[in-house]
Amino acid sequence: MARYMDAGTLSTMRRPDTRWAASHVSSPRLRSLLVLSLDAVMITGALCAALLLRFGWMQPERWQVALVHVLPLLLAVRLGTLVWFGMHRWSYRRAGLSEAGRLIAANLVASLAFEALRFLFLQDRVPRGVVATEFLFTTALLGAHRFAPRLVRQWHLDRRRARACDAQRALIVGAGSAGDLLQRDLLRTPQSPWHVVGFVDDDRAKHGTHLNGKPVLGPIGALPELVRKHRVAQVLIAIPRLPPERIGRILEQCRDQGVRFKFIPASFVYLDKRITSAMLHDLSPEHLLPREAITFDREETRRLVTGRRILVTGGAGSIGSEIARQVAELEPASLILVDINENELYLLVRQLQERHPKLDVSALIGDIRDLDRMMRVGREHAPQYVFHAAAHKHVPLMEDAPEEAIKNNVFGTLNVALMAEACGVERFVLISTDKAVHPTSVMGASKRLAEMVIRDVAARSRTAFTAVRFGNVLGSAGSVVPIFKQQIQRGGPVTVTHPDCTRYFMTIPEAVGLVMLSGLGGYGELCILDMGDPVRISELAENTITLAGLVPGRDIPIVYTGLRPGEKLEETLLSEEEERTQQVRNHIKVARSPAPPPDFQTRLTQLERAARNGNVAAVIRVMRSLIPTYTPARPTDDADAQPRDAR
User: Fold this and answer.
1) What is the pTM of this model?
2) Which CATH architecture is the domain 165-283 placed in?
3) Helix, coil or strand: residue 432
């Protein structure tokens, strides 16, 4: 009984599927028949209209009789030609200029064919004026039949979007091919949140013209006035290769308008006819660097990485995790990630395993200050390359705990370097900072000492050691842009240390590309990316507020807090000695640092003892003796010479 019921149920389930399939197959044919039927009606109407225009309402009797023979021939020729050109299979939503051209060509061919057949087979010739007029009327009617529904639908959607209470009025920057394709997509997307009021473009020949029914209102420089006049809330930048300085100028012009910005990335230029609103990205401060983004030869990096065993310390941090992601893409033999942050390390490894199921990845909990642990990691995994990204990097925190900066940044680096030497690592790359040049902070001084440590180890090792100096990395954990965004989300204020404070900036992809190419390419012992001109932090804060659709100073105040201990107004990338030895390769500056002093090991022992005992004054004193250009943020005295535990 159960089997019978199952069979019956199955049979009833199948029948609707069969009927649906049949109707699905026949619906295109029915659609084509309906299209051709409408075409036949319009062709008949066009011929009658042409005769009326030629002879008026008092038609000669012989033409009334001849119409009985002429009309069937005309319908047969025109409908047959339309089928031959594929005009019976028509997409009312997607047809464009090329389809309009095919329709005109089909009608022209049909008129020529009709004229030839009428000359051969019909005794009564239709006047050529009637034939020409019928061609024009037929082309117009068939075009209206095919394109009017789309135009009406687009007009209706545009009106409905304009009336919607949540629709944002938008201006498109760029009336070129990208702007054209973007506007087309917005017109046919009912869910689009934007009602485009027009375009702006610097090409004067386009001013006053229309693109997809929207006017080109003027040059880009007129944006502020047009934003006010048309109550615009969103600016859509459809010039994929617009230079960063031009984007910055647009932001500056619109700073008091409270508008948001989106743009089409340059990576989508190659898509050409497939640009859609889904490709629009939020404009962010990373796109406002006063220079073009630097890209590195991926194939060269692939040749360096593929098939190698690679270890990354600080693998869960912003830079370390991005290095791990980039390395994973390049098919290493194995990837070993070391960090003390177990939660972030766990999440990163899961992400890597999901994206690269065949990747041999190891997540190791470890403290770089533990030499025995580092040695065990080296012996067990035998890495060929080491990226040393683990470090304490926050300037104010390290001013309050100099001994911890020394333990981690100096002696942690020494431990990893000793492991690399002992285990026969081929290349060791240290992530350093521009704050190591003429340091005024404990963090900067500790990173300068880390550079000296690997230089000292390199003197007696077969491992190739390279230090890579970064500027500020946009988007990294604890950097200014994420902090600004958090402050803006809370309603402000945005805090900036000083109105004249400047910094060098680089993006995370640039930082990782620099590390991998310069560190593994054997360029030299000290590498720095050519980061162009430094950026004013106050300007970066204003741009971040503007990108959030708010007005700096009105919606979000900017408060200047003063330089914190250890901070400088501006950074330098190279010291005077390093400047004299610099070279430039592929946007990479390559320099040679001064050698450590002869008694470096002795002073390093003194520094290690002072840090272990918590003797801040001794730590500062030894650092100053090792780095003559180091200027401590605050003076130390004899009272500070005792360990912290004794206070």
Assistant:
1) 0.68
2) 3-Layer(aba) Sandwich (3.40)
3) strand
